[in-house]
Amino acid sequence: MMAEIEVTGNTYPFRKILKARYNLRWNRRRNSFYSRMDTKAPTVRRLRDYCQEFKLTLKINGTQANTSYMASADEDDFDSFLVDLSTDESQEMLGKIGGMPPLPGASEKGPGFRSVSINKNDEPRWDVKPWFEGTRFQDPRSEQRQVIPIVMDALNMGYENVIIECPTGSGKSALSMMIPKMVDADAYVATYLKGLQAQYMREMPFMRSVMGRGNYDCNLKISPGVRNIAQANDALENHRAGNENPNDKSPKAHLAPCRTCGPDFKCDYKPASGSNGGYDWWDSKELCDYFAALAAAQKSRYFISNTSYLMALGQAGSLILPTRDLLVIDEAHHLPNALASFYAVDINNRHLERLLGVPSFDDVVSDPNLAKTREKLLGPWDGSSSSAIGFPAVPSVTSDSSSKMLTLGIKVFQAYLDFLAGKIGKNIATDQYTDEKDLSFAYNYVSKLGNLINALEENPDNWVWSKDDDDAPTLLKFQPIDIGDSASELFLRLGRQRIFMSATIPSPTVYMEELGLDPEKTLLVKVNYSSFPTGNRPIVTTVTGGKMSYSGRDEKAFQTTAEAILQIINLHSGQKGLILPHTNEIEEKLLLALEDIDPVVVEDRFLTHGKEAGAREKVLAEFEATRDDAVLISTYVGQGYDGKHCDFCIIVKMPFPPLGDIRTRKKMEANEEWYKSETAGALVQMCGRVVRSADDTGITYIIDPTFDFHYRKGFNNQPLQNYVPTYFNEAII
Asked: Which of these three, 43, 64, 96, is where a domain ends?
């Protein structure tokens, strides 16, 4: 609840801190600093501690709180004091106290939804520059000067969610550093891509970064995935004594004995258990690389990681990742889909080949006698004693699927998934996976199957499944429709208050619904301008290719698109560029069409990368360091990639979510605004790749011939221009 906060005493030496950090204002009549805050906000507790340390008096609704003059009181006394503020008497007191007027919409439900628009000439509420002094960001940008005071106010007022929509180049990474610093709070900083996480660490190495276990080596020399505790203890003893064979290799941490042998194996290089059942990070001494990184992050104000890792650890609850005062999410527009992808599970024939011994096509080519074995094993599983382990003969979900079919399908698939998990688990137990990558894949696969089985049990109505071909399937996909009910438990609970930062949140209403955010506790801060000159970032739509819709991309369409791309590339001789094809299929066929027309240009200038992370990062590093006229074609770099070293970007297709995907179709049918919002958000992101600062210049070409219709008119008279920021519309040519 909102309360009157007042600080009295010898406040003069601390006036700057009280103003900047706690957003208090000087009241001459009272001779004190005051404000209104939510008593549940972490700021109140931090202010109490600050007043106690410097012998100031803190009053809440006129009653002295736990300060240095109440030194005998402990934390529980302060909690009780805050509880007392909820009484009817104290509520009545709020109306009698002078100072700031009550906030519109303020109630026990929350301070009330607000949307604050920031225009170029708006004066900042107060000067944030002193806070930037001594940091690598010496001179705050105009957007930062305007946004930060509003965010400080919102946190003090008790808003749990602050959504910041500010354009590319506004300095969101600096906001991630400054906001926790200014409110004196520990924070998780979450990024969507590992590449962006690495970029944060290059810019701010004082932050502490953690990635998945597979990125770290175990200290022990032992085979990957060992489950024999005696072997693990021997390896530990050899390491202690220095008796290891230097030629032996260590496994990655995700296949280390501390992970595969269970809790009975006690490793010296793992943190000791704390009293609450978690780890005692503060008593940790010599640790392996993984736990050393995790311990350092736990002790740091800035714990930075990618959303996938934080979600994976978030499943363990607060024992591993305790709730912090702040959760800061960069590229936050990705979060709903990242949560949905975390729960989604794909099962395909390659998985069955890799994990359960189904002969592959290559095996059949080498030995035709294996063809019958493959056909028999990939027959539909029906729960009988048959050896068939293929997908059950349950049809894909459609918009017309009956409730009876859905209920029956869920039961069949639960049994099938349990069958697969049991088979793979048995193979793990009997050491069938001799390759480390296969073993790692098997462990992760069993874990995902187990989570899916539980999810289908708990909320069957929220799931859809689809096959690539119901008659002869090679892929079976499970997806949750909505993740709002799970978002808090899995991820958002990491912060008592959360900062969502993105260049575009086309529909705040849709975004809040997607994540299950309470509008009464949410503030939207929208920067309506870009500090990048419009002339530096034109978006050209006058060069067009062929239709790239699923039904329209025939051979001629690819040829027309390739010709348009080559026309643009010829205009940018000696310059670097990006091509964003939107889908892997378009990328593959477009490259073939380009090679048919001008193989020399493709050979000389084009770079592509594989879909594996290692291969991709290698090519990206090469692209950034290579000659000036390279052109990278990639489906990966359309979101979050820093392409400031590029001079032009070509967008081949409007980034509409695929309606062939049943989850997409169901969500669109439930809310067409969601579909428009997803498309607009992706488009704005794609158009923000090559101009990353006010000094950058770059041209973005949208060559999809349907752009003008969708942008200016749209289906049902809902044009995309209604969903994109003003500064985007200004750049359209």
From this structure: 96
pLDDT digit string, tens, across residues 641-687: 777 789 999 999 999 998 889 999 999 998 989 999 999 999 998 99
Give the range of the structural domain holding residue 444, as residue numbers without chain letter.
Answer: 351-483
Per the domain annotation, does 166 fall within a domain?
A: no
Question: Which residues are within 8 A (CB) of 474 and not within 5 positions of it... i.e. 6 or more apart?
Answer: 348, 349, 468
Mark which of 497, 527, 557 sits at the end of a domain: 527
512-527 pLDDT, tens per residue? Answer: 999 999 999 999 999 9
Distance between CA 325 and CA 308 in Å, rounded?
20
Query: Do the bridges between strand 475-480 and strand 463-467 make them parallel or antiparallel, or are there none, so unpaired?
Result: antiparallel
| Neighbour-count burial of 602, counting CB atoms closer than 10 A to its CB (0-12 exposed, 13-18 middle, 19+ buried) | buried
d(CA 74, CA 54) in angstroms, rounded, equals 17
Q: Is 132 a domain residue?
A: no
Q: 640 and 554, same structural domain?
A: yes
User: Contact at 8 Å (CB) between 154 and 498?
Assistant: no
Query: Residue 88 is encoded by which pair of tokens?
Result: 């009817």
Among the listed residues 691, 524, 624, 680, the one whose alpha carbon sits nearest the alpha carbon of residue 168: 691
Nearest in space to 607 (alpha carbons), one of 197, 199, 594, 640: 594
Note the pLDDT of residue 703. 96
**Looking up tokens 């290799």, which residue turns up?**
249
Assess whether 322 and 419 both reside in one domain.
Answer: no
